[in-house]
Design goal:
By secondary structure, this protein is an alpha+beta fold. It has 8 helices and 11 strands. Helix 4 (73-95) runs antiparallel to helix 5 (101-124). The longest helix has 28 residues, at 136-163.
Length: 337
């Protein structure tokens, strides 16, 4: 059989490549908020299912390793368990059997914990590439595995839509609707260790720094603006909500010269993100959602509305905005805290 796989180094090498691919496509799916997110999500799902297809061969290798009781076997077993948890939680969330935020926390958490174990596994038990790995037969085998993952992803997507499972209502990013046009029903989430502060409007002001100087707006001054935009916040926790946001467009606040390349939006908690200056016209500093004042959990007294970007770009509890000559991409792709 031309496509018969042997439970050996070829399997381990394929698993290593697929694990790397799963991490890269997962990060892309996590970062992209627009329609292109589906293709990153599809690639991530296909790679994950390709891992499942290799499970029978890997189980043979794992059984041999356990019988030999080599040093490091418990760590290898733990790595295998984490990969299984990552794949199963991802599938459960995708089809709609587990749609809570905990599902994505388990999925992403297990994947992140598995990274140092995977690195250790590669260092301790290296699979050295050989010229034969690029032979026609090897490439056909690799294509069969990847193609199998693509077919499996398509089959699951078709089954989900045909049966009307909750997964059929997912957004392109894989997120589920929660609280659209009802801000009170929208989940309250924040990035990692960020905590919602209690801010009194009389003791708060928004500081805006541009090449022309520094200006300060009180809450009442900011709330006097009535620019509106309908936009969808899409959280990496696996939910999205569309709201009618009211506030002031950022290009009203930022006076930029040709040297300005980006602007930074900073929260009262110290959390911040950098954006290209060209995006200022499409963004809003919001003080209200659905015609009502923001709640503390949703960013009171002011939050950023960044259409087309994932939720971690929507900075809450804004206290400072400043322009910069630094390019917007000169920052961590994901906030570190």
């Amino acid at each position: 059989m031309g496509f018969r796989l042997r439970a050996g180094r070829g399997t381990n090498l394929a698993l290593l490549v697929l694990l790397a691919g799963a991490l890269v496509t997962g990060a892309l799916a996590f970062a992209i908020g627009g329609a292109w997110a589906f293709w990153a999500l599809a690639a991530h799902g296909a790679v994950g299912l390709a891992l499942v297809l290799l499970a029978p061969w890997k189980s043979v290798i794992s059984a041999r390793g356990v019988r030999r009781a080599r040093p490091g076997t418990p760590a290898s077993v733990l790595l295998g368990v984490l990969v299984v948890v990552t794949v199963l939680s991802g599938i459960a969330h995708a089809v709609g059997l587990w749609t809570s935020g905990l599902a994505m926390q388990v999925h992403v958490g297990a994947a992140l914990v598995s990274i140092p174990l995977a690195i250790w596994h590669v260092v301790a038990r290296p699979v050295r590439p050989r010229p034969s790995d690029l032979s026609r037969r090897s490439l056909l085998r690799a294509g069969a595995v990847v193609g199998g993952g693509v077919v499996a992803f398509g089959a699951i997507e078709g089954l989900v839509r045909a049966t009307g499972l909750p997964g059929s209502d997912r957004r392109a990013t894989g997120s589920y609707e929660r609280g659209s046009f009802d801000p009170a029903a929208m989940p309250v989430t924040q990035w990692l260790d960020d905590q919602p502060p209690e801010i009194h409007p009389d003791h708060w002001s928004l500081v805006v720094r541009t090449p022309n100087g520094t200006s300060t707006l009180s809450y009442d001054e900011l709330a006097g603006f009535s620019d509106r935009v309908r936009a969808t916040v899409d959280c990496t926790g696996g939910w999205f909500a569309t709201q009618d946001w009211t506030g002031v467009r950022l290009n009203r606040l930022l006076e930029a010269d040709d040297a300005v390349r980006s602007f930074v939006v900073v929260s009262a908690t110290g959390y911040g993100r950098r954006f290209p200056i060209a995006d200022a016209a499409s963004m809003l500093v919001a003080t209200r959602a659905g015609g009502r004042e923001l709640s503390a959990g949703h960013g009171f007294p002011a939050r950023l509305v960044a259409p087309g970007r994932r939720g971690f770009w929507w900075v809450k509890w804004i206290e400072r905005i400043e322009t910069s000559q630094t390019p917007w991409w000169w920052q961590s792709p994901f906030p570190l805290t």
